[in-house]
What does this fold into?
Amino acid sequence: MTEVPFVDLAAAHAEVERQVRAGFDRVMAKGAFVQGPDVAGFEREYAHFSGAVHCVGLGNGTDALELALRALFHERGADGPGAATDVVMPANTFVATAEAVVRAGGRPVLVDVDPDDLLIDQDLAAAATGPSTGAIIPVHLYGRLAPMERLLELGPPVLEDAAQSQGAVRDGRGLAGAIAATSFYPGKNLGAYGDAGAVITGSDELARTVRLMRDHGSERKYHHEILGFNSRLDTLQAVVLRAKLRRLDGWNEQRRAAAARYAELLAGIPGLVLPRPAGGEHVWHLYVIRVPRRDEVAARLAELGIRTGIHYPVPVHLQPAFRHLGHGPGDFPVAEAAAGRILSLPMFPQITEEQQRRVADALRKILG
It folds into this structure.
């Protein structure tokens, strides 16, 4: 029996192999391995794709979050003693969001999420925002943009965690905050062949600060304006991303078609909660259902050759690394309840109807 993979990176590679090989040959011939022309080309193209003025390529998505937040703190003078460095963010996210806040010198202020889509609850975020708040980070999970209307009016700058929402819009609008950070980890809608990330912004000053920070605080070799890092986007990864970016709109449409097919195939299965529809605005990085006895269901699916994921089984506040925040079980009940039931089904642009029918038939057998 052929396995249904959770994600099929080989299928995506087959579509871009010729362009990637040609690009690699070009880089090898020129020896432009660091900050080569392909990096500038990708930055220009991804900024245009995102509707932004600037894209700054970085080594990974976690660095993108950290450097974006550091740039915000720097711009607001919030990198000195006693400054406002609390950062409001949802408890339901990958740990990198909170990691980046701590690494940037901030303190994560966690809030619960909306029970329907598991995105940041705007009312709770507003209640948690005060004089000590230096930024707000809504996390765009699973391919859907988080609600932003009220967050943008609260005062502190908004840093969007856009690692799972490449190409998504909400109410006809894409990224709307002061700055956004994304990851090009291989499994993302736009994925590299290793680690890579970027910051997107409309601010000349924020973009310049991130560019300085990614390259040891330097615009000119051996002259360092600020304390920086080494987090440059690798030129070979830029080649891969340029080739894939040309296909991203089409791949996102294929994901939408697959999500619509799942909605039909999975309808009526007892105990199964489907994700809320979002028309053409969702890019379905993940197709996340909620089921009873989640771990048992996942194990049964694995026995039937169907690979799944869990995004994420332990909320940030229950991670030992963030015990210092002082939270415990019951503090964020929506995120905690979801963590025990969420299950990510196989989802990638090239998934076939036959593969999806196998997933649906298996779930019906297990839960029916």
Notes: The first strand starts at residue 54 and ends at 58. The chain has a mean pLDDT of 96. The chain has ten helices and eleven strands.
